Amino acid sequence: MTLTLFRLYHILVLTLRSVCSVAFSDHDFDTRCALRNHFEPAFKTQGDFVLGGIFPLHYNQEMPDLNSTYQPPPVKCNGFDPRAFRWALTMRLAVEEINRSKELLPNHTLGYKIFDSCDYPLTGQRAVLAVVNGVTEKDHGICRGASPLLAIIGESGSSQSIVVSRILRPFRIPMISYFSSCACFADRRKYPTFFRVIPNDDYQVKAIAQLLVHFNWTWIGLIRGDREYGRFAVQGLLRELQGTSVCVAYTEIIPLIYNQQRALEIIQVALSFTERAFHSRAKVVVVFSAEGEMTPFLKDYMEQNISGIQWIASEAWVTASVFSGSHYYPYLGGTIGFGIRKGYIPGLSDFLQTVTPYIYPSNPLVHELWEALYGCASVPSSVVDLPICSGEETLMAKHAAYMNTSSPRVAYNVYKAVHAVARSLHNLLLCQPGVGPFENRKCIYNILSTGGNIEFVLVGLFDGTKTTGQELDIQEDRIIWAGHQSKVPVSVCSDSCAPGSRKAVRRGEPVCCFDCVPCDSGKISNETDSVDCAECPEDFWSNPDQTACIPKVVEFLAYDTVGIVLTVISAVGACLTIVVLVVIFHHRYTPIVRMNNSELSFFILFALVLCFLCSLVFIGEPTNWSCMLRHTAFSITFSLCISCILGKTLVVLAAFTATRPGNNVMKWLGPNQQRAIIFTSTLVQVVICVAWLIDAPPYPSRNMKYERSKIILECSNGSSLAFWCVLGYIGLQACLCFLLAFLARELPGNFNEAKFITFSMLIFCAVWLAFIPVYISSPGSYADAVESFAILASSFGLLLCLFVPKCYIILLKPEKNTKQHLISRDKK
Questions:
Q1: Cα–Cα dist 191/361, whole Å
Q2: Per the omega criterion (within 30 degrees of 0), is the bond before 753 cis?
Q3: What digits encode the pLDDT tens for the residues 752-782?
Q4: Domain 201-339+458-464+473-478 sits in CATH 3.30.479.10
Q5: By three-state DSSP, how is residue 475 classified?
Q6: Phi, psi dihedrals of residue 356, rounded to the nearest 5°
C-alpha cells in the first residue's frame, strides 16, 4: 500500500500534536476534560516516539450492573490468554531490539504503551482513548499538551480494529494490525489509516471453499462469531461457494457476550446434523471466530463429551492455546485450518523466560500468567482461591500456549509491524528532498501488506498467487482426521450419484440434497454426480450400467440357433421331396401314377423343391438382391405349385365327369391345355412381381423403432400393396383349388385324389391365415422366421397330403396299385 506524500506528511505530523488540544481556556479544560477513571497500560516505557499496543490479553468479559443508581465500574475482564500475552511481549522485544540497534533510528528511541482490549470493542475503545493521552493517564489530568504517539500496533479482532481505526481517523494516526483479516478494511475511504501485516480474508475464504470442494464436503455447518470478522468472512465464503456443489446445512452465531445456554443450543444443532443417517450428514463444521469467542465455546463442547465433528478452523483460532492440552485431543484432534505465515524472532524464547512474577511483582498480568500456567497464585490473594506457588516454577516447552516460539505466527506479525513502523520513521527522518532515499529521490514511502500466500498448517499450502484452481496443494496422507481417522470424513446431504444415474433435486430442499435417479434407457452418465444424462447417438445404446454408449446390437435372421434349425428343416424338406420325386419317377408306369397325371405330379414336386429352398433366402443379412429375391421367389414358386395343383384338380374333376354320356370335356383339358393353365396362372403372379420390382422394390432397412436398443435389419416391402397382392393372389388360387377339390371329394373310387387335394389346401390356407397376424406383429428377424416357418409348414403340408398316400401304396401296398382296385369301391 503506497502512501502519498500528502497523506504521510499529515499522518506523521499529526502524531506529534496533542490529540486532545481544543480551543478552550485552562479553566474549560479543568472542568470539561477531567478524568473520571484510570485505565493503566499493562506495560509502558518512555521514548522519543511512542508506539501504542492493543492486545486481547483476556478473552471474556463480565458486564457490570447497569442500574443507574451509581457510577458503574469498568467491564471486568476474565479468562487470561497466555498466547496474546506472548504477542504483547513480542512487541516489547521488538522495541528494545530497535532501541539497541545502531543502524535503525540511531539517535532516537521508541517507547510503548501496551493495553488490554479484553477482546471486546468497548474495552478496545477505552484502550485507544487512553493510549493517545500521553505516556500515562495520570500525567495528563487535563487534555493538554503534545502526544508523542507515532502509531498503534493493533488490534487483533476486526471488530475492535474497526472501533480503533474510526477513533484514530480524524487524527491521521496510523494503526498496523497484526491479526485483523476482515475484508471490510479494503475500503480505503472508510479506513484510510488502517494497515495490516496479515492477508485479507478474501484469500482465506477462497482457500476454505477450495478445501471443501477438494474433499467433496457438500453438506456443511457454519458457525461464526457475532462480530465483523465472522460476518464478513461468512459472506465471503458464501460468495465463493456460489456455483459449487457445497451447501450450508445451518448457520449459527456465537453471541458477543458469551452465553453458555446459547452455546449449548448451537452444539445441539451441530450434533443433530452430525448424527443423522449416513446419507445425510453435515459432519464438517466451518468456524469463523476469534480465539476469545471460540475458547469458552470449545470448552463447553468438550464438556458434553461429544466427538466426531470435523472442525474447519479459521486462522483466528486454528493455532489457539486451547489446543495446547493433550486432553483436548479426543474432541478437537484432526481440526484442520489455514494458519498465517510463520517466521523467526531472534531471542524470543529467552525474553519470555525473563517475565516472572518475581521480576515483575507489581504487574497483575504476570501473576495471572502464573495462575494460568501452573494453577497457583504467586502471591496470596482474596480474589482467587489457589495454592501459593513454590517459587521454583520454571517455564518449559510444555507451556505451549505461552512458550511456543518454534514457529511464531501472530507474534511474528507483531514483530513485523513494529519493524515496519520503525523503518518508515527511520527513512522519513533521513529523507532529504532531491536526495531520497526513496524512488525518484523523493520522500515517499511504500508500506506493503504481505502477499497472498497462506500456509496450510503441516499438510499443504494455499498460494494465492497461482492461477485459479491451482492455489491449493494438499498432502492428504499426512492428515489425521477427527476421531483419529485416516479416512477422509464424509459430510454430505446425499450420497454421490454413481455413474449411470443423475441427481434429482428434492423439492423445497437445497441443491445438495438430492435423489439419485437411474438414467433412462438410451441415456448415460459417465461421471459422478451428473446433473443430467446424455442421450446416446442414433446407432448406439446404453450399456446395462448406463455408463457408456455401446453400438446397438444388429439383429437379423442369422445362422444362429433359429437360422440353423430352419436351414436343416428346409434341406430335409427338399431332400424328402426329391426322394418322392425319384420314387414317383421310378414307378411312373404304375396305375396310381398314370391315373393321377404323372406330368403334373412331377411339376408339383419340382415346385415344392423350390418352395423348400426359397425359405433359405430369408436367412442371413438382408441385401438389395436378397430382399428382392425373397418375396418374388416365394410368390412365384408357390403360385407355380398351386397352379399345378389347380390343374390336377380340374383334370380329376373332368375325368369323372367325362364318364357321363355325351360329355366331351376332356378334350378341353388335354396336356397342352393343362400346361397353358399352369403357365397362365403362374404368369399372372410373375407380372405382379415384375411390376412390384419396377415400381417400388423391397429393400434392406434398419428398424430402430420397435426396440430402441437394437438395430433390426429387415427387408422393407417397398410397396405394401404389391406385397398383399402377391399373397392375395396365392390365397385366391388356393381357395379356388380348395373349392373344386371339395366338389370332387365324393367321386367314386378307392383312391380319390380330390380328397387329398382338399386336405392339402385346407392345411395350406390354415397355415397362411395364422401367418398373417403373427407376421404383422413380429418385427425383423422374428417376421422373417415366421414367414420362413410358414413356407416350410405349407410345403410340408402339400408334400404329405398329396404324395405320402401314393408312396404308401407304391412302396408298402403294391397289391393295391392296380387299375381295378383304384377305380372300384370297397364293399363294406
A1: 40
A2: no
A3: 677 778 888 888 888 888 887 887 777 667 7
A4: no
A5: coil
A6: -135, 160
Domains of the chain, by residue range, sit at 5-198+404-450, 201-339+458-464+473-478, 501-551, 622-823
Q: Which of 666, 653, 645, 635 is nearest to 601 (CA)?
A: 645
Of 172, 115, 176, 178, nearest to 147 by C-alpha is: 172
Cα–Cα distance between 416 and 422 in angstroms, integer? 10
Whether the CB-CB separation of 703 and 712 falls below 8 Å is answered with yes
pLDDT value of residue 819: 63
Give the burial class of 450: count Cβ atoms within 10 A of its Cβ; 0-12 exposed, 13-18 middle, 19 or more buried: middle
- Residue 527 to residue 117: CA distance in whole angstroms: 53
The dihedral through the CA atoms of 388, 392, 395, 400 has a sign that is negative
Task: Tell me if domain 5-198+404-450 and domain 201-339+458-464+473-478 are identical in fold.
Answer: yes
User: What is the spatial distance between Cα 468 and Cα 489, in angstroms, rounded to a whole number?
Assistant: 26
Please give the span between the terminal C-alpha atoms of the chain, in angstroms, as a whole number: 132
- The DSSP symbol for 487 reads S
Cβ 501 vs Cβ 517: under 8 Å: yes
pTM of the predicted structure, to 2 decimals: 0.60
Residue 12: which H helix or E strand, with range?
helix 5-14
SS3 assignment, position 377: strand
CA dist 216 to 489, 512, 700, Å? 10, 11, 52
Residue matched to cell numbers 393343362: 674
C-alpha cell at 243: 456455483
User: Rounded to an integer, what is the distance from CA 488 to the centroid of its chain?
Assistant: 17
Pairing label, strands 310-313, 284-288: parallel
Give dist(CA 367, CA 361) in Å, integer: 8
For 30-50, letters b (16+ CB in 10 Å) and e give eeebeeeeebebbbbbebebb
Q: Is 59 exposed, middle or buried (0-12, 13-18, 19+ CB in 10 A)?
A: buried
* CATH superfamily of the 5-198+404-450 domain: Response regulator (3.40.50.2300)
- What are the tens digits of pLDDT across the range 76-117? 788 888 888 999 999 999 999 999 988 888 888 899 999 988
Contact present, 373 and 324 (Cβ < 8 Å): no
Helices then strands, each counted (H, E), the chain: 23, 25
